[in-house]
Amino acid sequence: MRRNKSGFSLIELLVVIATVSILAALLAESLARGKGKAQQIQCANNVRQLGIALRGHVAANNTYPQVIQPSWMADLQAELSVAKTHINSSKYLSEGVWKCPSAHRPADLPPSIGYESYAYNGYGMSSPDDTNSLGLGGHHVWSKSQMPGPAVKESEVLNPSQMIAIGDSFMGQSGTIKDGGWSLWRTHASTADAESTKRAYARHQGKASVVFCDGHVEQSTLRFLFEDTTDAALAQWNRDNLPHREALAQ
Length: 250
Prior knowledge:
Number of strands: 7
Mean pLDDT: 84
Oligomer: single chain
Low-confidence stretches: none
Largest sheet: 4 strands, antiparallel
Strand content: 5-15%
Number of helices: 6
């Protein structure tokens, strides 16, 4: 009497294993995309809250926060806190709306060096020692006199809806980007390396969360922010809404 075979053949087993492996890989990829999207949404919400705080400061003072004392971070944290008082502790810089869930401090970065999630467009396309900086952080004569220059008046920002205010902490130009720095800045004045640029492009799949002076948030590509040389790409950095292409040669 002939008995029926039971179980799987080796080929059938290999097919099942291959199918399960493919499905697992697809599921892992889908979960990673979902996690990345959720982090991107959280980051956008963070910069939106910082934009609201910025608008509150401007409404109360008719000027934008300065890059140096009183720092823009302390000014915005005062708006975010119930007491509306400056907080001297730097603890808040790694919590809540100040922390991008996709920004990871490099393990080899010395403890003495700060690593911020978000930064302020304090300089525009100017250098720090320009006497009439194109950014929001003040008229920077301080590097020569050791004193801060006048704050930027609200009326000096000619097109608030097209002026970058705050965003993911990136600075650089021509495709090289430093992450975790102290200023959101299109400039050659950075010491970025290949790993820093790689981290920047990986944070939000080649994009950055940016809030403009009028409070609206965009997910701008890093290429548009740091490589594009069209008038629109350059002018968004400067409060006079002009491209200042001459700054590219600095």
